[in-house]
UniProtKB/TrEMBL annotation:
InterPro entries: ATPase_NBD, Hexokinase, Hexokinase_C, Hexokinase_N. The keyword Glycoprotein does not apply. One of its GO terms (molecular function) is D-glucose binding. GO terms for cellular component: cytosol; mitochondrial outer membrane. Residues 246-494 form the Hexokinase C-terminal domain. It comes from Brassica oleracea var. oleracea. Residues 41-236 form the Hexokinase N-terminal domain. This is Phosphotransferase.
Length: 498
């Protein structure tokens, strides 16, 4: 071999050695990056862990806070608000009634016709529209004028033959925010939640604002009740099944209400109701306990929200926030590793990942996880390998599993407070006869998160059985109430007339 050929061969060996070295180096680097991402996932899983022992601590904390909130004004982060609802619709109601519901993402208007028998409930003309985002930080006047205008359009569409023509229309205003009531039809806004920010509205009477806007438009409508969405759901639940004592909403926000004995509402001594009980709006979104498994993502989300240090429980379990927790985890991963390609600026946009996208990714059953690929692409993350898409599904699972399980602990806490969790105050084992005395208890549940996100629902229901045990769970029935908040509020107005 000539000298040139030897030099050429040596150079070729050198080149291939360095190519191999570069490739090995890259592989090592990419393995290290993958390991970093897997480490983040592991930390997330550990921080979100909710073994049944921890859930039981949350159950106890919820029951304790409920007592404290009932004992004195400001005694707990749970406001335990009086609703002045002490009779729930029982099925004998008659007539035509309306509901206007301002929720977190949608507003709804509907009309119900009642024939005096439980089976005769005719829900007519349900309209459901997204709340225009500019209204959320406008002025109270703009907001209420918009609602009155929407109501006017709804009424204009009613046929001439509608039996409510010529009669003053009775309306329930389902208002999904915390209100301090002075009667069933009046109350002032305590604070906004779920991203609404109309500060001059705080402290104003909500029903009065709506009534004023209706009057200005010359509408012959009477705002007969101001109803929290949970109370609406409870009303519909009770209308169908008088064993309903608790209602919970899992939607954009989250909250619960339940029927309480008036003598247990110590902060309002002397409160007399003919039924001896009153529905209490817990505003459980603001519940807090050191037993809640909180991550650095929750802390950042809270700090950057429009209501920091507020609604801590809601921020772990409600629809507005689950997507944003998942987004924060993905962003963190994309910052420490390039497995998502170059970090997309969209991943830094708060709330850009909605919870319905999380549910679509989590429940993606295509073999190549095409839904996940599509949603990531919308976030500016394209062409990620299957193993990265699987990782994203896992993140959704961890965040939603924690939410579902904590939601179950919240419900079990209420059952404990009202003595329906099977413990009956007895710490030791229970006899068979005691078991037989366990009352059937219905929990009415409403809200898009619960209705549309199967995995959330399943995790919640599974954890409830885990907490209560198989035997007691047989007495606890969780019932879905589609549009329950709005329909139930209209039923409540009907029950006031009869
Ligand atoms: C509000 C509650 C409401 C819940 C569900 C929360 O943000 O404070 O009043 O019931 O969302 O809509």
């Amino acid at each position: 071999m000539g000298k040139v050929a030897v030099a050429f061969a040596a150079a070729a060996v050198l080149v291939s050695c360095s190519v191999a070295a570069v490739m090995v180096g890259r592989r090592i680097k990419s393995r290290a990056k993958w390991r970093a991402v897997v480490e983040i996932l592991k930390e997330l899983e550990e921080a979100c862990d909710t073994p049944v022992g921890r859930l039981r601590q949350v159950v106890d904390a919820m029951a304790v806070e409920m007592h404290a909130g009932l004992a004195s004004e400001g005694g707990s982060k749970l406001k335990m608000l009086l609703t002045f609802v002490h009779h729930l619709p029982n099925g004998t109601e008659k007539g035509t009634y309306y509901a206007l519901h301002l929720g977190g993402t949608y507003f709804r208007i509907l009309r119900v016709h009642l024939g005096g028998e439980r089976s005769y409930l005719d829900v007519q003309d349900v309209e459901r529209h997204p709340i225009p985002s500019h209204l959320m930080d406008s002025t109270s006047e703009v907001l209420f004028n918009f609602l009155a205008f929407s109501m006017e359009r709804f009424i204009e569409k009613e046929g001439k033959e509608s039996n409510s023509q010529g009669v003053k229309r009775e309306l329930a205003f389902t208002f999904s925010f915390p209100v301090k009531h002075s009667s069933i039809s009046s109350g002032v806004l305590i604070k906004w939640t779920k991203g609404f920010e109309i500060s001059e509205m705080v402290g104003k009477d909500v029903a009065e604002c709506l009534q004023g806007a209706m009057n200005r438009r010359g509408l012959d409508i009477h705002v007969a009740a101001l109803v929290n969405d949970t109370v609406g759901a409870l009303s519909l639940g009770y209308y169908h099944d008088p064993d309903t004592v608790v209602a919970v909403v899992f939607g954009t926000g989250s909250n619960a209400c339940y029927l309480e004995r008036t003598d247990a509402i110590i902060k309002s001594q002397g409160l007399l109701t003919t039924s001896g009980s009153m529905v209490v709006n817990m505003e459980w979104g603001n519940f807090w306990s050191s037993h809640l498994p909180r991550t650095s993502y929750d802390i950042d989300l809270d700090a950057e929200s429009s209501n920091p240090n507020d609604m801590g429980f809601e921020k772990m379990i409600a629809g507005l926030y689950l997507g944003d927790i998942v987004r924060r985890v993905i962003r963190h991963m994309s910052q420490v590793s390039d497995i998502f390609g170059p970090t997309s600026s969209m991943l830094s946009e708060p709330y850009v990942l909605r919870t319905n996208s999380v549910s679509a990714m989590h429940e993606d059953d295509t073999p190549e996880l095409q839904q996940v690929a599509r949603i990531l692409k919308d976030l500016g993350v394209s062409d990620v390998p299957l193993k990265v898409r699987k990782l994203v599904v896992k993140i959704c699972d961890v965040v939603t599993r924690r939410a579902g399980r904590l939601a179950a602990a919240g419900i079990a806490g209420i059952l404990k407070k009202v003595g329906r969790d099977g413990s009956g105050g007895i710490t030791s084992g229970r006899s068979r006869s005691e078991m037989r005395m366990q009352k059937r208890t219905v929990v009415a549940v409403e809200g898009g998160l619960y209705m549309n996100y199967t995995m959330f629902r399943e995790y919640m229901e599974e954890a409830l059985v885990e907490i209560l045990g198989e035997e007691v769970s047989q007495y606890v029935v969780v019932k879905a109430m589609e549009d329950g908040s709005s329909i139930g509020s209209a039923l409540l107005v009907a029950s006031l007339q009869s």
